[in-house]
Amino acid sequence: MAIFGRNDNKKSTAAIKKCATTIAYGTQIKGEIVLTSSLHIDGEFEGTIHSDHVITISTQGRVIGDIIAKGIIINGLFRGSIQSPTIEILSQGDVKGKLTYHELTIEKGANFEGETIVSESAALENQIPMIETESPLSITEEEQ
Q1: Cys-Cys with 117: which of 100, 102, 126, 129 at CB 3.0–4.6 Å?
Q2: How far is C-alpha 106 from the chain's CA centre?
Q3: Class of residue 2 by CB neighbours under 10 A (exposed 0-12, middle 13-18, buried 19+)
Q4: Percent of the chain beyond pLDDT 90?
């Protein structure tokens, strides 16, 4: 049996789906992120994020742009628009923008300025992209 057998591919794909992607403190990214895992932001991001999981912006995290996700937790700075069934702004969160949600939680000490739109959960779930991914770093027999 080879080290990289066909069954190993299924196991690694399942493990990847359980992982979270992290934008580390000191990292600056501009662009578009589409992912099938959770995202934890300690650094800075400007652009668009689409995820079928939860996005977390930590106390050091800074995001300017648009987010469509299954859920979002903000304890840092956010400027832009969010579409998500659940949005939580924690005590150190600083949010300015347009929030479209089914359930919104704002902790004491948090700052929010902007527009809110309450929407049916099902309508927001339909906005979350169905992301189909191929196994990363797949090696075909021809490439070996």
Answers
A1: 100
A2: 19
A3: exposed
A4: 65
Task: Give the residue ranges of DSSP H helices in the chain.
Answer: 6-18, 121-127
Q: Is 32 helix (H, G, I), strand (E, B) or coil?
A: strand
Return the structure tokens found at 63: 């995001």
Question: Where would I find the H helices in 71-120?
Answer: none
Whole-number Å distance between alpha carbons of 28 and 36: 21
Contact (CB, 8 A) for 35 and 20: no
pTM of the model: 0.76
For residues 103-128, one letter each, b for 16 or more C-beta atoms within 10 angstroms of the residue's C-beta and e for the rest, the string is ebebeeebebeeeeeeeeeeebeeeb
Q: What tokens appear for 143 in the block?
A: 């490439």
* Residue 120: pLDDT band with limits 50, 70, 90: confident
Segment 67-105, tens digit of pLDDT? 999 999 999 999 999 999 999 999 999 999 999 999 999
Among 35, 33, 32, 66, smallest CA distance to 52 is for: 35
